[in-house]
Design a protein that fits this description.
InterPro entries: P-loop_NTPase (IPR027417). By secondary structure, the protein is mainly alpha-helical. It is built from 5 helices and 4 strands, in the order αααβββααβ. 6% of the residues are buried.
Length: 140
């Protein structure tokens, strides 16, 4: 388990890179609680929009292990079985389901999300957007 302050610092460092500044960014699964939200703000990260997406969508998430940079949790190609499937058959064959996405783990995260949502909502209520994530990522 990574301490919240370290997560916030790593995210802050990554978001200061040119690609994030020019193209924008999306955080998935962070912040998960009020402390993490405050940690992001303390590092100067203030999202323009906060989109609460149910974790059920995560069941189709797949990662390409060949694109993952060693010791770098932020750089890996992410695909989805329904919304973002690669056209290259070689890429399709090597995709893996993230280890933390078992049905039990997703249920645990969903329960934790529902427990922490009121605190996170309070922090981000002025920028919170409700987005239907059950559609292709380009539309989201």
């Amino acid at each position: 388990k990574i301490p919240n302050a370290l997560w916030a610092n790593l995210i802050q460092q990554r978001l200061s890179n040119v690609d994030c500044i020019k193209q924008g960014w999306i955080l998935e699964g962070f912040p998960e609680n009020q402390e993490q939200a405050w940690m992001l703000q303390s590092t100067g990260i203030f999202p323009r929009h906060v989109d609460i997406v149910l974790l059920e969508r995560s069941g189709g998430k797949r990662l390409d292990p060949l694109t993952q940079v060693p010791n770098h949790v932020f750089l890996v190609d992410v695909f989805h079985t329904t919304f973002n499937w690669p056209s290259d058959p070689l890429v399709q064959q090597r995709l893996v389901k993230p280890e933390d996405l078992s049905e039990q783990e997703v249920s645990k995260k969903l329960l934790e999300y529902h427990r922490n949502f009121p605190e996170i909502f309070h922090i981000y209520q002025k920028v919170l957007k409700s987005i239907n994530a059950d559609q292709p990522s380009v539309d989201v």
